[in-house]
Amino acid sequence: MHTTFSFSDWLEHVRCLLPISGVVHVGAGGGLDSLRYANWNVAQAVLIEADEMLADRLVETVKEHPSWSAHSAFISDGDGEATFYVASNANESGALKPETLTRFWRNLRTIEERPARTVTLDTLLAGLAVGEALNWAVVDCLPALPVLRGAEKLIAQADVIVARAFLDESQLPGEAGGKSELDQFLTAHGYRCLATEEENQPALGRLLYVRDWKTLLESYRNDHFREFQKVVKARDEQTRLAADRQAQINELTLARAEETKLNAERETDVRKLAQARDEQAKTAADRQAQIQELTQERDEQSKLAADRDAQTQKLAQERDKQAKLASEA
Questions:
Q1: Does residue 234 surpass a pLDDT of 90?
Q2: Which residues contact 48 (CB under 8 A, 6 or more apart)?
């Protein structure tokens, strides 16, 4: 027997597999879906609506649930200024001008254009204590992609995302909002589209995305492997640099040892030269002393010889004188 699952059936099954610890609903309107969240006993709920009149109804809705909160905010992919279009059908009020949707609703028209301050979903949730508990997200507005682009942190922690989109992209009104772009964006963040549901206008519908743990695990594994490769490469580079530094240290140590050896040899040579110089100086001094001594002896011998010559001359004179006296006698 063939069983057809409705979108509500898918939500029920997914809720059993991935229980809701907290839900954030962008485009909550007057709070119709809050009845479902109450029946599901959702502990934490953040309901957001850009239309102030509808947001006032949300405030009344959450009064029965102390851990829920209601907020009037125009959610987009950046903090800035934009135009909020109030449509003749309140369900189609939002970022798209109602006249761009008349191919689906012939009588739809713009009631009012309101300048509004936009804020990202991550920015809004950052100021709430329930941020970490939110694991389901519902984006019930067109286009959904700008809302999700401003919810990177939420997407990283969520398990389930339900978004509204154009299923028949041939009828896109020239604005973002097609299923394919949501598929591409959320697939890149680890989600897969599990189910779709057409609205009364079949060109539009809701999409159910769940976290693709197998793909995500594979992505984490690949990321981890790439990081591991980076670490190994960095380690190898550090090892190479350490080896280069050690080689430089060894080279410098060897050069220092060689320089120390050369210095020691030079010191030895200097000492030897100094010793030889001192020995030569001593030898020269000894020779000078010998020269002086020999010179003194020579001078004394010369003096003695001179004295002997003088005595000899004197004796010769006396002899000659005696000989003369003898001859005269």
A1: no
A2: 24, 25, 26, 27, 28, 70, 71, 72, 73, 75, 121, 124
